[in-house]
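## retry 2 of 3
previous attempt timed out at serialization; input unchanged, resubmitting
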Amino acid sequence: MEKQLHLNLLASRPPMAGGFQSGSKMKMGPGRKRDFSPLPWSQYFETMEDVEVENENGKDIFRIYCSGSHGPVLLLLHGGGHSALSWAVFTAVIYSRINCRVVALDLRAHGDTKVKNPDDLSADTMAKDIGKVVEALYGENPPPIMIIGHSMGGAIAVHAAAANHIPSLLGLCVIDVVEGTAMDALNSMQNFLRSRPKTFKSLENAIEWSVKSGQIRNMESARVSMGGQVKKCEESTSSPGVSNSIGEGIIEEEEDEEVEEESNKKRMKEDDQEIKKDTVFTWRVELSKTEKYWEGWFRGLSALFLTCPVPKLLLLAGVDRLDKDLTIGQMQGKFQMQVLPQCGHAVHEDAPEKVADALATFMVRHKFTEFKEGYLC
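## retry succeeded, writing output
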């Protein structure tokens, strides 16, 4: 179980021992009910847009969320199965601290990005995607860019930096992904994926699961980011294919089917946005089908990270994640490292202020930018 807690493939952690498991009935307990309703992206980013990128097969469309109009660009890459929305709360915090621009990207086959070949999740292809999006956004003279990646996104950030896909690269920040730990975790990854619920009765149920299972320990971040992890599917909850749904386990009181149906009809008339009674939510990305790419993301990652010629920052949830190459490199001062305890694997979601503080301090120290006027560090 302890090994599973250190998975670096997903931007998640498996359910904690004794925590919420699929099919179990949950009572909210006495007191005020917690709010698991989703939050909009617009509360954290200024704009959302789709960027078209040319390739051999036609056009790929990458969804990005942005804030700011001047200063260095923070290019944010999320972990496997997540989306750019996992950076929402962090973006609001870092933007309040330093002069910067933020571009959070839905990677290939993730979030609302649409590509011609969504099955190709190789490190090489995904790293090239980063360069193409930067070129589409800024042309031949991109502004200074600090690339920041979490888990799988951290691996892709390293590959993109090492291959010089971002010519204006200022620095590199990798969050909670280390080659040794990641490679060790691959053997147990499929078991972890099978242990997750396949479907959720609603987006609220998905948000509640993410918090109670320990995947995301920050309620606010879960409420904005889970919408990027799951999607509606028009399959009845009674269908054989969705028997692993956890929706029934979270709702405190179930209405009679006839009453519930009548209630739904009434709500649908009042609100065109109301979802169908039998609509369920499922994962946007079938991570179990990406297994052939896992080793390519992480094999040789430590050496690649150490050879990147720009200033580097490694943020970890625990010192046990350091492998031999990184331990030696850290002792030689080849990169800066900071451990943020009391965090799950999704460090930037669990502790967005701590991650923002570490990154802001790093960037100001290297004179990449300045603290905003009036901000007391």
